[in-house]
Design the sequence.
């Protein structure tokens, strides 16, 4: 069984790997779009050169209308796109929480969220299933102060997963001796 610290370290490593993968993906996407825009620019320049050459050969011929369905690229649009991509890279590399400027405040901190997810609160029945005993036995453990618990406003027993796992480890050590 992993302890809470091990799970926290594991999640932090996974989060760092995800951030690294995101940054790499954003950079690759940026390079692909940049190469694509350069290809479009080369195509536009070459098509303009061909049109001007055909006009100079025979001034009596009319120019062909531009191909429909393809928008002429504007430098402003590509600059805006690059600015957004640069901002996206800055956001993914930031140390602070990105969503902290959201429209409503968070109810809990990042540490509290991780603790809640990694060390959830269990009911009496859930603790009994994890310990592979009946709920009455879990009540006996709590009455003898062998298993830590707390009470809700309705006077029901609640357990932290870490406390239940710690109890299991102690029982396993006691059986081995």
Sequence:
């Amino acid at each position: 069984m992993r302890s809470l610290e091990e799970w926290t370290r594991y999640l932090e490593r996974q989060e760092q790997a995800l951030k690294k993968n995101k940054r790499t993906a954003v950079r690759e996407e940026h390079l692909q779009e940049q190469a694509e825009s350069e290809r479009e620019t080369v195509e536009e320049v070459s098509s303009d050169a061909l049109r001007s050459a055909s006009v100079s050969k025979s001034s009596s011929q009319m120019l062909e209308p531009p191909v429909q369905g393809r928008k002429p690229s504007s430098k402003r649009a590509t600059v805006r796109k690059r600015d957004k991509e640069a901002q996206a890279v800055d956001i993914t590399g930031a140390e602070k929480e990105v969503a902290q400027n959201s429209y409503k405040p968070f109810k809990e901190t990042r540490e509290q969220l991780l603790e809640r997810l990694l060390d959830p609160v269990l009911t009496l029945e859930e603790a009994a299933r994890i310990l592979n005993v009946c709920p009455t036995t879990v009540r006996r453990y709590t009455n003898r102060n062998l298993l830590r618990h707390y009470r809700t406003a309705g006077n029901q027993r609640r357990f932290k997963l870490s406390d239940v796992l710690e109890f299991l480890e102690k029982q396993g050590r006691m059986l081995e001796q």
User: Anything to note?
Assistant: The longest strand covers residues 157-160.
